[in-house]
Fold this sequence. Notes:
Chain A has twelve helices and twelve strands. Chain A is α/β, with parallel strands linked by helices. The first copy, chain A, starts with 5 loop residues before the first helix and ends in a 6-residue tail after the last strand.
Amino acid sequence: MSDVGIKDVAARAGVSPGTVSNVLNRPEKVSPATREKVEAAVRELGFVRHGSASTLRAGHSKTIGLSVIDIGNPFFTDVTAGVEEVASDLGYAVILSNSAGSRAKEERNLLVLAEQRVRGVLITPSDEDPARLDRLRERGISVVLVDHPAHRPDQCSVAVNDIGGGMTAVRHLMERGAKSIVYVTGPLTIRQCLDRRAGAERAYGRPLRVVEMGTMNPRAGQQAAEKLLSEGDLPDAVFCANDLLALGLMRDLTHAGVRVPDDVALVGYDDIDFAAASAVSLTSVRQPTHQLGRVATELLLDECDNPATHAHQQIMFQPELVVRESTR
Amino acid sequence: MSDVGIKDVAARAGVSPGTVSNVLNRPEKVSPATREKVEAAVRELGFVRHGSASTLRAGHSKTIGLSVIDIGNPFFTDVTAGVEEVASDLGYAVILSNSAGSRAKEERNLLVLAEQRVRGVLITPSDEDPARLDRLRERGISVVLVDHPAHRPDQCSVAVNDIGGGMTAVRHLMERGAKSIVYVTGPLTIRQCLDRRAGAERAYGRPLRVVEMGTMNPRAGQQAAEKLLSEGDLPDAVFCANDLLALGLMRDLTHAGVRVPDDVALVGYDDIDFAAASAVSLTSVRQPTHQLGRVATELLLDECDNPATHAHQQIMFQPELVVRESTR
DNA sequence: TGACCGGATCAGAACGTTTCAATCCCGCTC
DNA sequence: GAGCGGGATTGAAACGTTCTGATCCGGTCA
Lengths: 328, 328
């Protein structure tokens, strides 16, 4: 059992507990000689600060919360990695929670985070309702929206321009000569899917033919291919709301004798690791996911640590088109 | 600012703080009438328990730590999802840390976890040295090893049988008639890569030709393909230490006119989402990753909550071969 | 009637830090 | 040698819970 506390250290070093605390938190305030004595005692006793006591007294903790919609999704995984990197560098612990798209679970998770008195929360909200987040902020917990633009100016957010991404993809297809383009997407209740369509249609100049699938995995892509094939009327190009859809689609088109890109050009979204390595490498829209996580965390911690000077920012990253064989 | 504490609730409900605490922690101990009064007060005041104070007094927290080697890796992502699921169901918060393969970073992260006084730690150790973990356990923090078998009987662990997985893969290739088999792998300093080779060779009956790459992504797979092609002497079958290697390899073999599976059969490992949807779908060895995370967490929380009756277990899951076109 | 019982409630002391006003000590100046 | 200034150090209060032993109260039994 770890029962060595700050006063054991104090006793060992022959100083008062207050001094030990100073060594721990404001080393510059204490003379080098005593500092060394204390540090030695800490080492000898294997003292580890009791975070809860510290949080309780100081009124704020060294933890932040991260609430994502789907841990399994590589997009969030990359974001999470960026978050962890920055947080851990600054000595913060990250409490991870997965709302799995369920509003109830998100609510429960936020409660747990509030109980832990996290310093702030990074959240990809599972719906548009800002009430829960306001309640957090009333509690003095800063909130930064991730992958979701803030509606209000007193709120930080980082997001990626999905409209722009959709435009870029379709503009590229059109420059390549595509006349009829289909948009294959996941549920249109998802903001990303909607925004990408909006951008795509803006570039296209009129409504796109849309194939909407319930999920966004390769299997759904294959089903989308079947649908297109059975309907006969093949487009010259397909824009998919994510790479998994695109790759599944590509596979079944190819199996059916349709050549990519000669018969049908194809653009995906996310630029997952494997996009570059599929049989016909996939043109895709890459998002700076890792960066998204890093910047969000930096904003959050700045808001926490320098509340006076902190300026709220709504950052919008621009995605980048990576051209490969599927549109060449 | 959230400054409503247990005594505000007590005042509002006209009871003592102790009673409120009882309502929160042992509702059965308090009469229905007062319980209701207190619950109403909690609701009206929007009271949220201060976790740190609670931890401080009670001596244990409602958090566990999870330390993985590489958050970005889908294997760990799935494990993490399983962990989060169970923990959150039981009201535990998960503190995530990523050692990124660096022993120093792992050490720092474990210190942070110790400061947070986590109840226990799930860890995929970045090396074999058990000293750090012993130090944690001396502090009363339970430890469960993830994806790494425990050497000692007084230690829980969950792992997947990589030797068995390697055997299964190669046995399958041999049954299919393969005579010369190559093992394409990541760094052989990684236990998984080593174990899979060991199993593979056990099935093969003699040493395998090995192509060792520095990383385990599709690009490395493509480089491995180039190497095999340039050396001329193509095998009948390749077993890859993971799917990304296998898919990259497949792509470049196919581009070079080598037919899969007719000229070269191919087995990957991990059964990632995309294995089923590549141009030639990939035979792969699937691991119960999600399950791994769930069971590990259940073991840990059992060890924490029922230290008396808890029996340490070393669980070894068996992977499963999923046969697809690349070996048909 | 009074002693006794048991369940519900209470009061107050912890838990291990941080904070802040108070104190100490030392070298300087006059 | 007294007085002063200022950096280093101290000691005790406070943070919001939980826990423990004590108290209260209504009812039962002799």
